[in-house]
Fold each of these.
Amino acid sequence: MIELGHLAAFLALAASLAQGVLGLMGARALAGRAALVAFGVMSLSFLTLVVAFARSDFSLALVANNSHTLKPMLYKIAGTWGNHEGSMALWCLVTLGFGGAGALWMRTGRDVFEARTLGVQGWLATGALSYLLFASSPYLRLDPAPLQGAGLNPILQDPALAFHPPMLYLGYVGFSFVFALAAAGLMEARIDRVWAREARRWALAAFVPLTIGIALGSYWAYYELGWGGWWFWDPVENASLMPWLIGAALLHSVAVTEKRGNFAAWTALLAVLAFLFSVMGAFLVRSGVLTSVHAFAVDPKRGMVLLTGLVVYGTFALGLFALRAPKLEGGKPWQMLSREGALAVNNVVLVVAALTVLLGTLFPLMAEAAGRTISVGEPYFRLTFVPMLAALLAILPVVQVWSWGKADLSMLWKWAAGGVALVAVFLALGVGLWDIPLGAAFGLALGVWLLFGSVGELRRRAVTWGRVFRMPLRVWGMTLAHIGLGVFVIGAVVETTQRYEATLALPAGGSGTVAGWNITLKDVHAIEGPNWYADKADITARRGSAKAEMAPTKRYYPAARMPTTETAIHKTGTGDLYVALGDRRDVDGETRWVFRVYFNPLIDFVYLGVLLMGLGAFFSLLPVRRKPA
Amino acid sequence: MILLRGMFLSIAACALALTCMAQALEDPAEEARAQALMRELRCVACENEPISQSSASIAEDMRARVRTMVGEGASDDEVRDWFESRYGEFVLFRPTGKGLSGLLLWGAPFGLLIVGGLIAFGVARRRQAGASEVEPVAPEDV
């Protein structure tokens, strides 16, 4: 069975190679067929891996090392990509999937260009498949086969985590197709409006799952690690944030190219960078140069292969860019204060923000090479990244109104007055009434400003409220994404500045008070699951008439000899009451249990905001009905 | 895996120390300042955690030290310097801005912003020079 999969992967490699050669020769139809064949056989190959995991076939080394018969079926299947080799197989599958999708759905009417795109994608697939087959093969057998597997890393046994990697990979690898489009466009020195319309769709197709993937990862970290926060500026989180920021810049830049023919070179550069940042993320995570939760199957040799790939892709694309960028044609004229100018600012800030994240992530490594150990944590990003983006968001509602070519500045004083009034209201409310820090008051004003701005712009374009729902999907997409930013800002500001945390050590029957909630521990008892056993605490939380039964649990997975925290979260409507069970302590002959209790106000706004951004991008991706001529 | 296991062992070790509810400072302003400092000092026994969150015993000691120093009137920088001299730069989640590397780390983002802004400005001016009469076009669907 698995040998069939192994063979299929080799066939996929051959088909990808054919796709690469035929594509660069300009044979659109043949390259397209090769891409579909490659995707077909790779799907089969991946399926054999999934089946091996589902059937717990321990004669396969990968299954033996990463699975266990007692695991629930969902995690057996998700275990296929919950390890290095399997996740690389998924990477290959998605790369080929985008190639096949491109073969079917590219619509530019330019055969040679599309053939070359498929060609470049074929070479990217060839690289990925070679890495899979020759440097990290998931198809190796074990003889004799062990009777039981070593189990999947328990903290990965979680529904959000089962779908987080596929989503993230759809995003990362989706940018490979955008990369291919940019390379093919640069080859013929034609990055124009037709190119941009095509590239934009694929950039959105990558951006949507990347956004959802980041949200899932963040939500998982929130409830599974038991640390109460939703973003830790962990190197791996940063590795996914960087392509997202570049992707966001790309989506704004490609709109300029599509509508006005401008920013052609810059858009092509961003299209290349989005994928390079994705590969770099994979390199940082997989090479083990950064220590992190995700650094399973760390291997410096593999890191070297990935790094080589990154350098090869980068040299090729950036070299091509340097040769062809001067030959690209400009579009319609524009003045400094115009929609184009505003989007140029958007792009500068988003790219510098991505570079700041890169610097903060790599700086400890560079310092270590120089013999120093340095930490770069949340305070660094709070003082550099956050003000940068806050300033960008502050101008968003104002410049969103501007026209292409030349802005109408006659309304500027109204915007200024509105902004000042809003800040004044929130300063008065915040500092006076709510007693929150100055920065939080500004942050809330910013969030509300974004909400008003986004809805106001929708209304302005629709002219009357009645016509709002007849606006094009793309306008709705933009509006939802920008509303999402506002919702996210409000959630992030309130959660980070108003979070309340405490540690309680309770005996059975004891109680304590956190953020107005009276927490009573009824009892702790031992329970058993399919592949774990656990201590489960029964807690009653009361505040006024509100009452919640909560059961924070600490699981122990014998196969992996590892504990995990199952936090209990009670949604109160204004926030999360969050309880994580810690260890048992014996104090003076009395047994006490340690609980970490948080109240995270408006945390759902953080996730809702990110999901709205993803939903907005999805709306923009939906096909538009052609207007009757 | 080994790293992971190490991480969980250290968390387990962290959770063993219990007395996390140390005496808060009497002056709320001082306590707030101490807590802000605790959020930017790294627990030296845990994985990527500030001492404000960690329940390791070493973090407990570090928190007590922060409170003592703040209570005795030490400035934020004095507290940071003390921890840096004791545990090394590693302990500071907010890396120091001193020296060439500090300048690079803290200066680069804003330097890049200025450089990027100047480039955009230059391009915009070139485009503008060629565009004496620009017709504004309302954005349709983006």
Note: The radius of gyration of chain B is 24 Å.
Amino acid sequence: MDPSLSRRRFLAQGAGGLSAVWVSAHWPGLLAAATHAHHAAQSAAPPKFEFFTAEEAKEIEAICARIIPSDDTPGAREAGVVFFIDRGLATFGVDDQKTYREGLPELQARVTEMFSGFAKFSALTPEQQDQVLHSFDEPAEPGKAARPAARNLRRRPGAQNFFETLRQHTIVGFLIDPDYGGNRDGAGWKVVGRDREHTFQPPFGYYDKDYPGWESAAKEAEKK
Amino acid sequence: MTVDQPKYKTSDEVDFVIVGSGAAGGILAKELSTNGFRVVVLEQGPYLTEADFTHNEIEIFAQDKLTNHPKLQPTSFRKTPDERAKAQRALMYGRCVGGTSVHFTANFWRFHEIDFIERSKVGPIPGANLVDWPVTYADLEPYYTKVEWEIGVSGLAGSSPFDPPRSKPYPMPPLPVKSSGVLFERAARKLGWHPFPAPMAILSQARPGRSACVQCGYCLGFGCEVGAKSSSLVAAIRVAERTGRCEIRPNSYVHRIETDANGRAVGAVYFDEKRNTHLQKAKAVVVCANGAETPRLLLLSKNKQFPNGLANSSGVVGKNLMFNTYSSVTGVYEHPLNDYKGYCVSRVLHDFYELDHHKVGFYGGGGLDARYEWTPVSFAFGGMPPETLHWGKDFKATLAHNFSRTMEVSTHGTSLPVENNSFSLDPDLKDAWGLPGLCLTYKDHPDDLKLTNWLLERAHEVHEAAGAVKKWSFPAQEQQFGVHLLGTCRMGNDPKTSVINPDHRTHDVKNLFLCDGSSLVTSGRGQPTMTIMALAFRAADRITALAKRGEIGA
């Protein structure tokens, strides 16, 4: 796996002097997903894909749906993430096209390797799907053996890289401001508890709602 | 862009050409044009305004809409000069009219007295090139006050017992406290420390043409849609334009300062948007291109007369680079803070600004603050507990729970000037215009890392006293990437060891002035922009006095 895509390294760098935002910016390809998916994602008309075939889209959506699953609350599927990614790959995210084109068949090969008789990720049960994706997880500690599920499997760097790219794109498509494509109906924001308003007023949260004001707080502190 | 702007011809010898329109360049443009001079500002980036600023994370983080572009402007990194540099993104700065002040967080701490006289106070430090400034806090105080009143800084005078003396209170009250600020304030008081409302270059009260902060939550990385953030774009450039004497020329990439046979600067050579080359003539050149691009421009301007680069007889151009140290402890709380709402930082403390190096065993000092600077997307990548698997059911559940319940306690501290830490021209890398790219050489002084780890322990104590349910951090690591670009053309009285004199005039070229992060002699404790702006106001006074005495014009 491309070390620049390692979450571990990402966090380590973040701790080494950079805020998360700067590291995000420092991380090539992190958000090279797509914008302009707004209309596609929000359209009620039958979806028309620009980059994916209908069959590919079904597979991509199935993977996205394990990255951010649907449970009591919406997941990647309800947020229309696959449309966001499709539009992105057809517009300025063209650099990632190859990763998808080559990576998806590699991932499907891993499916067959792990579950003989199955050729498609979408045909597996959710539990089996998770097993396939877990086989691409990083080793728990640098230098240690890969996790058991990945043992005895053929190395598939193309699939690994594809999964990591798709993971990033899924998260962006789930959480980006809905005005810029993805995150259909603000589904992702509902999940994380982000209010949809564009501007806010205090009190913002639980701990500032009863704040007595600077002067009173200072006096209270003096009394103690 | 206003209709009032004059359009100077490049062959017109204007009074000043200013290279860069950021924190320093914007202020100098305003001051010099207000003082009656004809000014052209050459900015390499585009001219964007509030209408162009959005919350689009893709544009900001993936497309570098407001910042230098790694593909067009590649850079390299190495730890020490004997290593071979490898290509990697090494720095970030604002690349649009207003520069980095457009997208910064807007923390506006003044430097304290100690920052200017630290060498005298603590003595020499092995491995560091620490010296006193040729100016003191008292010299700069009137200009700090000017910054606060003229561009708009919110805060509460007297709220920190560690504050240096000030001649005037802040022009407007602090912004409303956030939940992170309340938790921080209570915890710090419990620990016997002295938290105070963060001074921010963000309006808490409206000013003509500028709204008070509307608490949208997109400060760091983003331009302000309502003009509340006191960037030089909204707070200085527009005043300069209204004088009718200042032209802002965007998409103008300066790559050489031209000199004549007498060793005087005659103007700035730049590429326009179509990559045609022009020479803008001027009586004097003021370079405010930031702590990386200013030394680069001097080095690119070398000629027979100045074989080491312009204004570099000392050999220190590009050296003594300081990034400041930064780190943070992330904490999760029981109830929603909703800190994604609103500006980033509402409470700060300066109890550790001046540490006794005999007691702690290392040199330096710093501040702590409570902050939240994530957007939803950047939180998912950078704000989650390290052991969380990064996809699937648990990922989603943790994301859903933590997004509104997380805050950081961040540490901000000194970086010691180290001679080897530098920006230089990479012998192999070329930018999209065919010019040598920047090579960063950087290895934190060991004391900087000790300081950061020490401050991190204090940050853990804050979270603990505040009742965090969970908290984590990572040990300080050597930096390989900078956003505070300081010290690379340091100010001093001795032409052998500094690049500019206290008037910001280069020792070597009489009509060449430098003012930006490169001018700083020490790093302060982490929030340099206010000092850069104060220096710019002061430089404008000095340069105006010199010009009026006839000491600049040919």
Note: The longest strand of chain B covers residues 277-287.
Amino acid sequence: MSTYAGTLSRSRLSDPKTVGVVGIALGVLAFVLAIPPVTLRSAVWPVVIGFVALVFGIVAISRGATRVGGGAIAAGIAGTALALLAIQSSVSNLDQVVDASLIAQMLVFATPLTFAAVGGMFSERSGVVNIGLEGMMLMGAFWGIWGADKTGNWFLGVLIAMLAGGLLALVHAFFAIHLRADQIVGGTAVNFLALGITGYFFVQLYHGGNIPTGVSQIPSLHLTSASSSTFFGDSFGNLNYMIWAAILLVPLSYVVMFKTPLGLRIRACGEHPRAADTVGINVYVVRYASVVLSGVLAAMGGAYLTVGYLNTFNENVTAGRGFIALAALIFGNWRPFGAFGAALLFGLSTAVALRLHVYSDLASTLFQALPYVLTLIAVAGVIGRTIPPAAVGRPYKKQ
Amino acid sequence: MKRVDLGVFNVIKAVQAGKFKGNHDLKFTLANGGMSVGEINPAVPRVFIDAVEAATVLEMRGITKRFPGVVADDRVDFELRPGEVHALLGENGAGKSTLMNILYGLYKPDEGEIALKGSRVSFASAKDAIDSGIGMVHQHFMLIPVMSVAENIVLEVEPTKAGVLLDYDAAVEQVRDISTRFGLVVDPNAKVEDISVGQQQRVEILKALYRGAEILILDEPTAVLTPQEAGELFSIIKSLQADGTSIIFISHKLNEVLEIADRITVLRRGKRIDTIPREGATEDGLARMMVGRDVLLRVDKPAANPGDVVLEVKGLNVQDERGLAVVRDVTFSVRAGEIVGIAGVEGNGQSELIETITGLRHADTGEISVGGRRITHATARRMLDAGVGHIPEDRQRLGLVLEFSIAENIALHDYPFPPNSRWGWLFPRRLAQRARELIKEFDIRGGGPQTSASSLSGGNQQKLVAAREVARDPKVLIAAQPTRGLDVGAIEYLHRRLVEERDEGRAILLVSLELDEALSLSDRILVMYEGRIVAEHGATANEEQIGLEMLGGRRKEPAPA
């Protein structure tokens, strides 16, 4: 038994890719040891572990896994450096930045991005670029809170948001699919259209003032009692329904996209619409449905922002989150789990950036740019290649 | 052969229903949609037997399809018998593909009717045609490169489990079953982008068979294949035929049609010229039917009169993008007034050799000189100035800017010089004037100087490229597969033109994958195999010998079934 395990681990370890991945993990570990809850105050362990990560990276590169190996080296150096920085700073400051609620906050920021990114995945996998996610989110944000306010029911508010987002997506679909307009220009127009519609009705319906307080809000799911404070309780115990919905959406959309005939057909339309057409798939129907679905999902993200989190609305409340969702989608290689991971990364960096104010405003602002630097690197193909659907952005014309 | 009307299937149905039983002891077996006659009693009236033998599985009557400005198909009749290979022969633009796209439900005919097994059908979409047992393998494959073979095959008719989930394992199993049944070996789990073009074509065929195709349309199936792959395709076609599948084989290559078809229907400018059995058909006769006049299939050329060496290549070594040696130690020369042909199977370094000589690829070692001037590492522009003319193998990608007009395409090299331009100022009228002259001289049909190159037919696009290159009066003319994808009329013109240019005293380097062409045009032939020149022959070379050398000296293995 033990020998079997031994040979197994040895054979796994001899794979240079595994070596590289372990190196990356060690690099991260070097940093994690220096921050709460572990909070090592001695530099010895982070430096040693970081060094080991470096060695693993070099081994991986020398055996041909250059990308993963490079990642391990970078992780080793960055992990050690960050750990040393953390050790330099005071424990009280560290505790303010890193605690269990950081996870909850990360999820809060990641949720709207996840909805929109998964929505965008459906649209782009079917072959339609959806740069209008931002506008669809904004529609959801405004009409969601309007609905919750007028009906007094957050659930109806979210439904109205979905309807509004779907309608705007229908406009985009009509221009992109039916009229074969340029999808980037069309999407940009849709964004401005949404800005105009929500801005106008915000002034018209609320006289430019604030949404009244006490609008029906999406409740949270209480898993632990409020009095006890555990790590799990602080991180996952008190999350909004919409956050859980986003977390469930990810595996669900994965199954739909990659494990059902429907998903296969959607992907076929985005890769080679004529091939799909010649086996009898109606490319137009698939694309319309996918774009509308993307609008509905993006609007749910917007609705979470206003009805679930802020409980109010400001003009342009989404502030570019739709574009960030698009970046998450690309970073995640047009895959649900990839997009979710990217959304979590962006959410984490936003959450950490907010907390870095205890050090300096400068650090906070600078840190906020980090995920987008990562996105650029990812798109440029340094960390694995991101490959868009082959026919994305190209209108389909039946013969 | 006796002409049979649509009614024959109704007669057969009546026989099956027992209406004629007692009088005529007929047994019919329906297998795979094809129909064969079992024991036929001699007492059965002759007309019945004729009718059954000539039974058509598909009948297209008076099909007319108009596009703005052209009549693509003009009252075309076409009929297909069960289990036959029926070739549809015609020049590019003769209406073959349009006719088949109508059959496959992609176009709606303006007039005419289609009957399948005796009953009238009308297809609104490809799905209708598929559901009626028609499959089509398009010239440009309709496969999704990033998906697996199995996913491509089952797309839209996917096996499911639990109602909604895609049953991928079942799909793989079904694809395996069907591929062993028809002898088409593919790996169901391989990604389409990772397999060869020949295998991709098998996937396309399997895709049709998986959907229960009884009639298979193959649209110019050999255009993308190497000679070996074409041989394999032909044995696949024969085994499908034996299985009862009826096959429509679209082509403009005479030798293929004569090899594989049972009957041949010739189309010319949208009209059906005739349908003839293969027996008794000849290349010359078919070519005449296709083009409408006598065509010179063999090149008639006087003996060469070589002068000084113009192009000289010494010890050339070239690597491809992955660092593999693709051209190895190649040395040869071409003299003024001779045509030197390079024969070889595609992918043996010919393309890379040409690209290096024309300055599109970097040479590792070795030397290239034109007229005594060393131009080994020169840019494409300097190569052109040194007197190299290039008719590239991919005219649409390397030869033309498709969106540009004929006049602009002709000026692609010489636009910066007078009379085309002066002080950075272009003179469009002079470009147009020049274009008019060349259009006339090279007989480019289908438009004037301002017509965009994309709207020309393949043959006229190639004439346009040739016009530009020849008009520059190059010392060396490099022609890479100058007749690829062209019909016989255009091929005849280009061949004659190349010989004329030779006689004008140009050195011509010809690369051709068609051994026939290399043999008939060249004064000397070099055989390329795995990047090396493995043999050289004079004008009277032995075709079989060269064929062997092209395959590395080994005898060609029989194609796996």
Note: The longest helix of chain A spans residues 283-310.
Amino acid sequence: MIINGVFIDDTYAEAFGMKATRIVITADNLTWARHAANAAFGFATSVIACGCEAGIECELSPAETPDGRPGVAGLLFAVSTKELAKQLERRVGQCVLTCPTTAVFAGCEGEESLPLGKNLRYFGDGWQTSKLIAGRRYWRIPVMDGEFLAEETTGLMRSVGGGNFLVLARSRSRALVACEAAVDAIARVPGAIAPFPGGVVRSGSKVGSKYKALPASTNDAFCPTLRGVAKTELSPGVDAVLEIVIDAVTDADMRVAMKAGMDAVCGIGAAGGIVRLSAGNYGGKLGQFHYRLREILA
Amino acid sequence: MTTLSLRAVPNGRVDMTGVLPETLAERSADDIAKQIVHLAGSPLMLGDLFEVDVDETDMLVIRTDSDRLDCLGKGMNTGNVRIEGPAGHYAAQGMRGGELDIHGDAGDGAANGMTGGLLRIRGNAGDWLGAALIGDRTGMAGGVVAVEGNVGDRLGDRMRRGLILVRGQAGDACGARLLAGTLVVAGGCGTLPGAGLRRGSLILGRRPESIPLSFNDSGRVDLSYLGLLHRHAESFLPGLLPASTQAQRYMGDLAFGGKGEILVLA
């Protein structure tokens, strides 16, 4: 398959079932909501060492938030409910509770729930009070700028993490331009985030390492500097590869996000220095979700 | 579903307990007319007091020009009831769900012991709205009450949970002995607001003549909770609460733990 001069590899992205939640952070203005969200969802690129993957899903107008103030919705993904609960509490406790004017609310429903303000309320040292509004419990925790308002729980969703595609280009700068366009397109898809810095990964990994302590190491088959000394997947003319990793609430969201991203890359096409699109997988044995690139782009 | 039209003003108080959407559903007019109610303590058939019409709608409508129909919506679990006219005492007493819409005034003791559902009163309400049932330790414990007019004394006395919204004025001792929950009175109140308040919020649209001495002034504060409440209240009484989240906060009653608050919005 070739689209606008870009060859689409006959391969698939291998993704995993994950646990996820959505929270809404509001503040007196969007700037402070973003400050809280950037802190809470920072250092959350990969579950390998961050505990969770997270990112801002979208910005919300005052009409779209529970307390009528501007806000952002963010998604957090983890490999287990326990780890997700731990990361959520830590991040909200250290990054949202601490941020001036903010409040935090559940952004989704679920069969199960995760503590949001349920345990953070004890920061109030006995001065915390709760309010039950429309069947939902909120905690009012006294802080130095007034009150931190936190909904008691948020929902738990079964989701998909680790969808990806690789952009193979004639140069690093051209790969980056294409990836920026892809990330912009993915950002417009509800229910999907690209958790890495700027949404783009340069350090794609393979399973295993020559060092026993490491579970993963650099994906040498896609490293341009190792051509000639290691087995390579790079075709002639490819001088740089960047990867986009996507986490999504549902399988359908993942397909929409991958298509949006790849369409953006193909739109730039061979004229923009894009040579191929490929994807990362582990032989299909680890992840229960397989996203075939040609099927998604068909 | 059913329309009950009062034939004449009854010569005593009528206990309407049991006349609910859930008990009248899928019954014929003749059958409904045989339902027993009590007039001045004596049993009689509903058909003796009301004309009964059954229709296709899912609402129970009671047409009355008398305020002697007590216990309307008492113990209601589900469905919709519209009272076209005044209600007597103890409307929505022990109500657990559904919606009771009174297009007129309500007597004393409305929403006593209510635990869920929605009570709308388009006119005024009497004393002890949302308070405890006689002999109970706690008052209203859930649901929403929205009053367009004024209410009498002891609004929300010993209220445990839930939300009461009043567009007009409240009498004396509103929110007295409040255990928890939220009371909003937009139009001002009488003496001793929040006396004996333990937790919960008494939100006043107008500054009362005096705040009880056992409340301490916490100053002007910004509470994002008020934004949440504003949005919720808009669906029941639009324009009742301002969009502003600023309020003067008084914490108390310090004679009873001091964890409650009176918020003055003006």
Note: DSSP finds four helices and 17 strands in chain B.
